[in-house]
Design the sequence.
């Protein structure tokens, strides 16, 4: 069998005999039957539980539009222009519109990345800011039922009309991305984000779970406390094409979006595997190891203990987070990392916990652009230059007759194991 595995902006070609394959786990086919522009237009004209945007915003008001950052696949360049056109029709000047990039705790994008997110014309016409700009201010607006203080970007709070744009996909402890994630963590202060993310150790803070997921529930609380006048989110197929789009009330948008995501990406796996070959979906999900860890986490759910995981993630931006790297060097076991996080949760360090948990229970072979010495000495992974070398190492570990589960979309596929080997 020949399988094209996403890697950066391109692919790695896997050739594997059929008798060496346990299963190929791919998203359900869901071709784009209508142009993206049509889906976006229809969503704007038929909002869920809300008046249309043209009846919400008024001439003379200030507007802020929150968009995803460079680590997300949201097709902002397609979704933003119709919003701006609608606002222009209302009579709102571009000088009254601010675009806020929801970086959370991520590094603010440079101009090149801003142009890539928004398109150069929009990026140079409108005021564009990021949540983590050096001069960003955050205002306390209340507390969650868990006692977390909500501190939200002042520019967002000050605007007369608040709009969020995003996409809905799986998230490994928030259940799903989308809607409320634009606010918490998107435009929240790092202290608020850290307090929220420490809830990841709760058993219901897991992929595909919203009900009873106290971390996600707090994110919804943050959204409602900050306010949102209009939301538009998209659902993407495995080719990053828009196949669903909804606007209006963010809670209703999330409900519709998660239904589509489950239809496309929730996959049952009959048995745990000796060998799993998984990718981090290619760019932008494998922009760095910090992002690619999500695919590694998914692989641990379907790979038997002491089994082998081959992870493909190009990581052109390296490890991608200084705290993640620092904690990997400071804490050598998952138990040590968990104990330290429970004493003082720090954003970035949580990825070190998932990382150590995976490498302690499995052999992890990494195909990436990272230096082999770094992969081996600091990451406790096994570097491989290509798939041939990785497979040779895997068969040495698991035996020459080992059968592989292959997951080309490892970041966004929800892998549910219904049995054990």
Sequence:
């Amino acid at each position: 069998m020949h399988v094209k595995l996403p890697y950066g902006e391109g692919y790695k070609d896997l050739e594997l005999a059929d008798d060496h394959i346990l299963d190929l786990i791919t998203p359900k086919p869901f071709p784009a039957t209508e142009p993206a522009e049509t889906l976006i237009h229809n969503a704007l004209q038929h909002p869920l539980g809300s008046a249309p945007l043209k009846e919400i915003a008024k001439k003379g008001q200030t507007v802020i539009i929150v968009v995803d950052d460079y680590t997300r696949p949201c097709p902002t360049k397609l979704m933003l222009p119709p919003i701006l056109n609608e606002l222009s029709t209302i009579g709102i000047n571009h000088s009254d519109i601010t675009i806020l990039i929801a970086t959370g705790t991520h590094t603010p994008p440079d101009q090149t990345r801003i142009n890539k997110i928004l398109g150069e014309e929009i990026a140079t016409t409108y005021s564009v800011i990021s949540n983590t700009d050096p001069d960003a201010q955050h205002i306390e607006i209340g507390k969650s039922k868990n006692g977390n203080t909500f501190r939200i970007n002042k520019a967002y709070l000050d605007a007369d009309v608040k709009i969020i744009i995003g996409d809905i996909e799986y998230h490994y402890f928030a259940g799903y991305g989308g809607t409320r994630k634009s606010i918490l963590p998107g435009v929240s202060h790092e202290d608020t984000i850290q307090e929220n993310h420490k809830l990841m150790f709760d058993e219901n803070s897991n992929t595909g779970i919203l009900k009873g997921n106290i971390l996600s529930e707090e994110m919804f609380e943050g959204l409602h406390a900050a306010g949102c006048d209009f939301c538009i989110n998209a659902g993407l197929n495995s080719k990053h094409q828009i196949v669903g789009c909804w606007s209006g009330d963010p809670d209703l948008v999330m409900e519709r979006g998660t239904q589509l995501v489950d239809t496309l990406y929730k996959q049952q796996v009959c048995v745990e595997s000796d060998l799993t070959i998984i990718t981090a979906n290619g760019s932008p999900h494998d922009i760095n190891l910090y992002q690619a860890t999500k695919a590694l986490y998914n692989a641990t759910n379907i790979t038997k203990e002491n089994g082998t995981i081959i992870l493909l993630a190009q990581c052109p931006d390296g490890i991608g987070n200084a705290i993640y790297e620092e904690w990997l060097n400071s804490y050598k076991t998952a138990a040590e990392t968990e104990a330290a996080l429970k004493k003082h949760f720090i954003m970035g360090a949580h990825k070190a916990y998932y990382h150590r948990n995976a490498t302690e229970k499995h052999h992890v072979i990494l195909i990436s652009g990272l230096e082999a010495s770094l992969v081996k000495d600091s990451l406790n992974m096994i570097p491989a230059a290509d798939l041939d070398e990785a497979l040779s190492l895997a068969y040495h570990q698991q035996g020459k007759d080992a059968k592989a589960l292959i997951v080309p979309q490892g970041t966004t596929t929800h892998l549910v194991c219904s049995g054990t080997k």
